[in-house]
Amino acid sequence: MLITKDNVMRSLQGWIFVVGLMALGNTVSCFFDHSFLKSRLYTGAPEKANDLAARLFGLWTLMSALLRLSCAILITNRALFNLTFLSFVVAFIHFLSEAFIYKTAPLTIGVLAPLIVSGVSMLWMAVAYCYLSAEKRANDAAKETFPRRVGDIPLMRSKRQKAE
C-alpha cells in the first residue's frame, strides 16, 4: 500500500524541511534586499512595505523557518508538530487577508506560492495528525494497567505480605 504511516510521515518530514530551507532563503532576502516585499509580495500597496516591515517580515520568516526545521527533525514531537501546523495557518490567513481584505497583495506568484505551500502543508499535516493520534491512542491503550482495587497495587501488596 502506498499510503502508509511511514510514507506519510517521512514525505511530510522532507516537505517541511524543504519549506523551512526556503523560508531561510526568504529571510535573507528580507534582511538584505528591502525592496523584496515591494516587488514580490505587496505590489498592491508598495508604499506600505518599508524597511521596517521588511525586517519584521524577515524575523517572522526566520522564526517560522527554525520552527519548521525543528519539526522536520523531530516530526513526532506533538508540541512542535502543532506549532508548525499553526504557523502554516497563520501564514495562510495572513496572505488571504492581504489579498482579499486589505488589497495590498494581489494574487501574483509571490502570493500564490505561499498560499499553495501553506494550504498543502496544512492538509498534509492534518492527515499525518490522524496517524499520530491513532498511534498515541494505541500506545495509551497498551500502557493502561490501572489496578482495579487498592490491594492490586504492588506497593500495597508487598507491605501487606510483610505484615502477615
Question: Any descriptors?
Answer:
single chain, 164 residues, mainly alpha, 6 helices
Question: Short summary of the structure?
Answer:
By secondary structure, this protein is mainly alpha-helical.
Descriptive overview:
The structure is a single chain. The protein has 164 residues and is mainly alpha-helical. It has one domain (5-163). Helix content is 76%, strand content 0%. The chain is built from 6 helices and no strands. It has helices spanning 5-32, 36-41, 51-73, 78-100, 109-143, 154-163. The longest helix is centred in the C-terminal third of the chain and has 35 residues, at 109-143. The relative contact order is 0.11. The mean pLDDT is 88.
Could you report the average pLDDT, rounded to the nearest whole number?
88
Q: Work out the count of structural domains.
A: 1
Distinct helical segment count: 6
**Main beta-sheet annotation:** none
Distance N terminus to C terminus?
59 Å
Give the oligomeric state of the chains in this entry, treating copies of one chain as homo and distinct chains as hetero: single chain
Instruction: Give the DSSP E fraction (strand runs of 2 or more residues).
Output: under 5%
> What value does the Rg take, in angstroms?
24 Å
Shape: elongated
